[in-house]
User: Which sequence fits this backbone?
């Protein structure tokens, strides 16, 4: 039996995907690094989002000729840009930021010296990343299906007419 070859999406099926998590790492380290390093982590993550969106636009453009080619390109790129923007940058960055802030707030309530290390919030922030990824991805996917994709009549998983 020959196995079907699944097309590899470099931005979602390879280690390149981890560039989308750069801002989460930056947020985890926010309490101990310069603000410009946190900003740089966001630049990396946003660059990843733009690169993925551009790639999806090129793939849509290269598909068979269609009178609606430009519309398909715009919908593919915008869908990816919105999805990645929320799933890779906005929601995870905010989530890790609030987790680390909550840890730092709790640390202020403890008088013990061993609980005052800034590395505690960094460690908890980093440890949290793998646990928030899939729920956020599912939340954004469902949100996109119920809103944007419904409004524009586009689904990235269905081949165009």
Assistant:
């Amino acid at each position: 039996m020959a196995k079907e070859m699944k097309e590899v999406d470099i931005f979602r099926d390879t280690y390149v995907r981890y560039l989308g998590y750069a801002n989460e790492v930056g947020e985890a380290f926010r309490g101990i690094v310069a603000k410009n390093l946190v900003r740089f982590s966001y630049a990396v993550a946003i660059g990843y989002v733009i690169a993925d969106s551009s790639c999806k636009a090129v793939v849509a453009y290269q598909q068979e000729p269609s009178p609606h080619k430009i519309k398909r390109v715009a919908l593919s790129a915008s869908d990816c840009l919105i999805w990645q923007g929320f799933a890779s940058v906005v929601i995870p960055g905010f989530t890790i930021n609030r987790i680390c802030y909550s840890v730092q707030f709790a640390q202020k309530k403890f008088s013990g010296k061993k609980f005052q290390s800034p590395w505690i919030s960094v460690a908890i922030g980093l440890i949290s990343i793998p646990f928030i990824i899939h729920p956020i991805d599912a939340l954004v996917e469902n949100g996109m299906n119920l809103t944007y994709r419904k409004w524009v009549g586009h689904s990235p998983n269905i081949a165009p007419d």
Q: What stands out?
A: Residues 15-152 form one domain. The radius of gyration is 19 Å.
